[in-house]
């Protein structure tokens, strides 16, 4: 029996499963794969009037980004900020999960989880207003405290070197609770008998955390990092645009590919350029994920495990 005939036989035997999955598969094709045809815009001088019949320009749109005087800065800022965010959120979420897992006061544990998870639902524009109330030079709470202590106020909007670390702190405050929930779910699946046996052998809580909890979380940590690497070449434009706004003084350390693209669209409405940038980001992200997954497979093979994503 040929492979095609075997596939048809399988579908015929399990037709009800495919019927149930049909709406989801159709939506996946329409909203995920069909839009990929729009990648042709990256090679055109696209106009909403002529649509896909727009003049073909080859690689010109790609050259507009790569030959830009600030291209290097955009790439460095995008990668540096994302590395900071991934590292800080992973470590903070993991530490919080390990500490909460050791709590025995269930009511306090539930309240703590809820309070840490709450910032995740606050929109970035609201976070931007809250941040401004803290760091504004004249009326900000932080600067008023410095003034009351006789210390000079800090002009945050004129100090770009501070912002990568300030953005990282904000990301920790907003997203660490969500990361913590994921690691707590993984911790809840660990057999309690392992902890009981370690306690009988005289292991302290810290030793049980280090020798049992952490090794058993390696798989989920690698999975979360690999998924984050898939977006490492994309800037969080919602966060950066809401917090940085149009302060050109902060661009040297906070301007990323996506914010540059947004400004270009606002000024020139160059659809072909935006499509080319998106295509570059997707290609680089795919290469990074494949490379990272290969490294993880090599590492896990040495340990006799399988932590690879695919």
Give the SSE layout.
Blueprint: H1 3-13, H2 15-33, H3 60-66, H4 71-101, H5 106-117, H6 124-135, H7 141-148, H8 163-188, H9 192-200, H10 205-229, H11 237-244, H12 251-254, H13 257-268, H14 271-302
Summarize the structure.
With 310 residues, the chain is an all-alpha fold. The chain has 14 helices and no strands. Helices cover 70% and strands 0% of the residues.
Helix/strand-derived category reads mainly alpha
Kindly estimate the percentage of residues that lie in beta strands according to DSSP.
under 5%
What order do the SSEs take from the amino end to the carboxyl end, as H and E? HHHHHHHHHHHHHH
State mean pLDDT (0 to 100 scale).
87
User: How does the overall form come out from the CA principal axes?
Assistant: flat
